[in-house]
């Protein structure tokens, strides 16, 4: 071998070893996401359910890491939230407004950026973004929502999407955990890994294996006070004029709603029984997640991966668990838009730390990219909060987080709305109209099932809550003269935020007319 060839070979070897050393110095990242797991159902968040000890493994993760108390989604529904997490962008920029939109394959930005940084990438479990998750090195995902028992998965390398189906026997939460551990065993050990570990649970209708039949059976689940009485809550958009729509808006635990209700009989006792049944099913389903996370964490420790792996636990949104007599999500109320968010990484994060930094789901991708040694791409609208993870203050951070729910009166009878939440206040505008024209609206949704009821006019109105003094959002203060100066400032900030985030009505003149007509109501 001549001298030039030897030098070339040594140079290549040096480069390989350098890159390999860099890769091994980078943390692995496991992003764990459940579906509809409310922060109020996680013990570490100190809610009314904490005394039931519903999530000991998640609680321990939080105690050993950092728990975020002010993490919010920008649209509390599965598909848009997941799209914002993958893209670091808000819905009008990434194109996913509601459940009917697919995320373009070329916009699967997060795995692309992680691969640029030398990571092997995988997603296992729930996907719910319609198009093939083709930008991941490996995937094994549930079709659409998937099944709790004996689920099928679409697996990379098992045929062409969407016909690459593989069936498993058992309970999905157990199976998804097994699949992630199998992936970790067979991974390329010359690279750090980025794994998105997504559970279907505890999305309704809640299911669980027989081993959880007795969990909480003899307990009485604490109830929210506003399940029964809330005379100053809401607005004409959520209750109707003189409560004329009270039996029509938002699925209920009581028998209030004409169709979507958990109790078929009236009275406080029947509502109590319905609540107990509902919450026990939900918490049993969630218990399966927590137990399986214990299994996954034990595996990481056994394999020597625990210390050098960033573990993030979150859910795609929150969940109404009887608060305001609502179930499901979609609303801009706290229990719905708040996301649990916990980060564990012993090499960086001090145990038992909490942060009230106002973050949202567009920030997750930038933060993971910077944890992996990269820089936030300019096309992402979210911000990295890696300084917070390092125990430092953020610079030029947002003072308000934006929210918008597009799916007017679909599925759970929630009117379309948008708004902002600051540290102390929340302002919501119910414009109460679908972005589609009426003929398309009729064609798309449930007119056959509910007839003209779906097209019933819903009043346009505002809601404003003083979160500092009214964290449960019991009193709509929009008409209170005391807050008129604050409201004026919040409306200015809302307009500015919508412009900055490309969240205006430029493509929806019908909606802009509604906004203009009612902005100063």
What's the SSE blueprint?
Blueprint: H1 3-25, E1 28-34, H2 56-63, E2 66-68, E3 71-72, H3 78-87, H4 91-94, H5 109-116, E4 120-125, E5 138-141, E6 152-155, E7 165-167, H6 172-186, E8 193-198, H7 236-239, H8 268-302, E9 309-315, E10 320-321, E11 327-328, H9 334-337, E12 341-344, E13 353-355, E14 359-360, H10 364-371, H11 386-389, E15 400-405, E16 417-422, E17 425-430, H12 438-444, H13 447-450, E18 461-466, H14 484-500, H15 509-518
Parallel strand pairs: 1-8, 1-9, 2-13, 3-14, 4-5, 4-8
Antiparallel strand pairs: 2-12, 5-6, 6-7, 9-12, 10-11, 15-16, 16-17, 17-18
Give the total of beta strands.
Answer: 18
What percent of residues adopt helix (DSSP H or I)? 25-40%
Report how far the terminal alpha carbons are from each other.
84 Å
Q: Reading side by side through the largest sheet, how are the strands ordered?
A: 7-6-5-4-8-1-9-12-2-13
Computed structural class: alpha/beta
Low-confidence stretches: 12-22
Most strands sheet: 10 strands, mixed
Number of helices: 15
Mean pLDDT: 93
Categorize the overall geometry.
globular
Determine Rg (CA atoms, Å): 24 Å
């Amino acid at each position: 071998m001549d001298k030039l060839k030897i030098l070339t070979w040594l140079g290549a070897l040096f480069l390989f070893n350098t890159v390999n050393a860099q890769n091994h110095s980078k943390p692995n990242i496991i992003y764990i996401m459940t579906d509809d797991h409310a922060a109020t159902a996680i013990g570490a968040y100190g809610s009314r359910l904490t005394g039931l000890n519903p999530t000991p493994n998640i609680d321990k993760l939080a105690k050993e890491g950092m728990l975020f108390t002010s993490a919010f989604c920008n649209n509390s529904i599965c598909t848009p939230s997941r799209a914002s997490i993958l893209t670091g962008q808000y819905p009008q920029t990434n194109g996913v407004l509601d459940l009917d939109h697919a995320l373009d394959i070329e916009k699967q930005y997060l795995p692309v950026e992680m691969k640029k940084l030398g990571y092997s990438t995988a997603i296992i479990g729930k996907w719910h973004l319609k198009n093939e998750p083709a930008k991941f090195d490996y995937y094994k995902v549930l079709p659409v929502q998937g099944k709790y028992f004996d689920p099928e998965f679409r697996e990379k390398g098992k045929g062409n999407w969407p016909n690459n189906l593989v069936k498993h026997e058992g309970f999905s939460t157990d199976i998804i955990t097994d699949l992630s551990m199998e992936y970790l065993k067979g991974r390329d050990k010359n690279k750090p890994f980025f794994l998105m570990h997504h559970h279907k649970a505890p999305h309704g209708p809640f299911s669980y294996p027989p081993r959880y039949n007795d969990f909480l059976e003899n307990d009485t689940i604490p109830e929210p006070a506003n399940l029964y009485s809330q005379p100053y809550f809401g607005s004409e958009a959520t209750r109707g004029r003189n409560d004329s729509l009270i039996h029509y808006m938002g699925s209920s635990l009581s028998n209030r709603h004409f169709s979507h209700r958990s109790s078929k009989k009236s009275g406080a006792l029947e509502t109590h029984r319905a609540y107990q049944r509902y919450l026990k099913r939900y918490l049993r389903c969630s218990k399966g997640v927590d137990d399986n996370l214990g299994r996954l964490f034990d595996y990481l420790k056994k394999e020597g991966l625990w210390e050098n792996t960033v573990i993030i636990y979150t859910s795609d949104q929150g969940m109404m668990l009887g608060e305001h007599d609502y179930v499901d999500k979609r609303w801009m109320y706290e229990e719905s838009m708040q996301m649990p968010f916990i980060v564990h990484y012993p090499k960086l994060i001090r145990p038992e730390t909490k942060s009230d930094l106002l973050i949202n789901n567009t920030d997750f991708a930038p933060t993971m990219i910077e944890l992996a040694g990269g820089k936030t791409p300019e096309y992402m609208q979210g911000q990295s909060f890696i300084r917070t993870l390092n125990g430092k203050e953020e610079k030029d951070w947002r003072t308000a987080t934006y929210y918008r729910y597009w799916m007017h009166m679909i599925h759970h009878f929630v009117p379309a709305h948008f708004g902002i939440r600051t540290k102390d206040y929340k302002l919501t505008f119910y414009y109460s109209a679908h972005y589609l024209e009426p003929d398309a609206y009729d064609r798309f949704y449930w007119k056959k099932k509910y007839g003209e009821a779906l097209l019933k006019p819903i009043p346009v109105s505002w809601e404003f809550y003083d979160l500092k003094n009214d964290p449960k959002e019991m009193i709509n203060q929009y008409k209170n003269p005391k807050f008129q100066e604050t409201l004026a400032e919040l409306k200015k900030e809302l307009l500015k935020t919508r412009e900055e985030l490309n969240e205006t009505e430029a493509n929806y003149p019908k909606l802009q007319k509604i906004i203009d007509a009612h902005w100063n109501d």
